[in-house]
Amino acid sequence: MDDILTVNGLCKSFGGIAAVQDISMRIPRGKIVSLIGPNGAGKTSVFNLLTGFYEKDAGTIGFEGAPLEGLKAYDYVKRGIVRTFQNVRLYSAMSVLDNVMVGNQYRIRYSPLDIVFNTRRKRRVEEESRTAALALLEELGLSHLAYERCDALSYGQQKKLEIVRAMASAPKLLLLDEPAAGLNPLESEELSVFVAHLIDRGFTILLIEHDISLVMSISDYVYVMDHGRMLSEGMPEQVQRDPAVIEAYIGKRGMQDVIAGKSP
Ligand SMILES: Nc1ncnc2c1ncn2[C@@H]1O[C@H](COP(=O)(O)OP(=O)(O)OP(=O)(O)O)[C@@H](O)[C@H]1O
């Protein structure tokens, strides 16, 4: 199997809190892998370690066969690793199109002189960026919103737009941190179709998500963390039958109740 990312023995502590303890995982190219677990399990800390927001205490992270060491945040995007955040981080006063163009900015190459003199080269590069951004919006069914201000969009549309902006930089690995958080059931369903479409386009995704029915319906493989450790892993149907997961993740509730979205 062609793994795009391999993680071995990853550790990170904050004072007395061992947020990430001996975590190992792998993500095959073109697959969607999910990382789930109760609040405070350490999922976001793993994302922060994978994207250089946190420095690891121990362990190795390999991306496309080479170690991810000593890179600046910007270098992760250049290497093809892009993430979204739990909370929407769009430029709310800018248009949808401009936000997507921000996403592919790192691919734009022109000099400060090109900017000062507004050269033909600068205008051409910007036009290419605009065309690419519009094509992406079209493909993902959001082109009718291209000239809307972001703050005029529904929350569900903003969550999708965040993913589109991340995709605009043509990532090899997309890390999605709770894309369904705050969505109603209909928006959540739309989002799962949207994410499934990204997989059809050949993207590789690592997903953190509390919406278990979404996770179980779209994941190829699931990792479960609890208290900083890896509690379980496997295909969705294996994980949801694992007694350790049922006990730690959902307590006395049945997994079917969680999947059905019933309250505790
Ligand atoms: N920068 C930090 N400083 C101190 N403690 C931190 C920091 N980041 C994470 N932690 C702690 O590490 C533990 C794991 O937190 P993390 O946010 O990774 O969990 P999570 O599984 O993503 O939780 P949630 O599902 O609630 O987002 C928690 O106890 C948290 O308080």
Strand fraction band?
A: 15-25%
Distance between the terminal alpha carbons, to the nearest Å?
A: 39 Å
Shape: globular
Any idea of the CATH topology of the largest domain? Rossmann fold
Described by strand count, sense and barrel closure, the largest sheet is: 6 strands, mixed
Distinct ligands: adenosine-5'-triphosphate
Average of per-residue pLDDT values: 86
- SS-derived structural category: alpha/beta
Query: How do the SSEs run, as a string of H and E?
Result: EEEHEEHEHHHHEHEHEEHHH
GO biological process, one term: L-isoleucine import across plasma membrane
Keywords: ATP-binding, Nucleotide-binding, Transport
Protein name: ABC transporter ATP-binding protein
Pfam families: ABC_tran (PF00005), BCA_ABC_TP_C (PF12399)
Model description:
Helix 3 (96-103) packs across helix 5 (120-139) and helix 3 (96-103) runs parallel beside helix 6. The protein folds into two domains: 1-80 and 173-264, Rossmann fold; 92-170, no CATH class. It has helices at residues 43-50, 73-79, 96-103, 112-116, 120-139, 155-167, 185-200, 212-218, 236-239, 243-250, 255-259, and strands at residues 3-14, 17-28, 32-36, 58-63, 66-67, 81-83, 173-177, 204-208, 221-226, 229-234. 38% of the residues lie in helices and 23% in strands. With 264 residues, the chain is an alpha/beta fold. The radius of gyration is 19 Å and the shape is globular. The termini are far apart. The structure holds adenosine-5'-triphosphate. The site of adenosine-5'-triphosphate (ATP) has 11 residues, from strand 2 and helix 1.
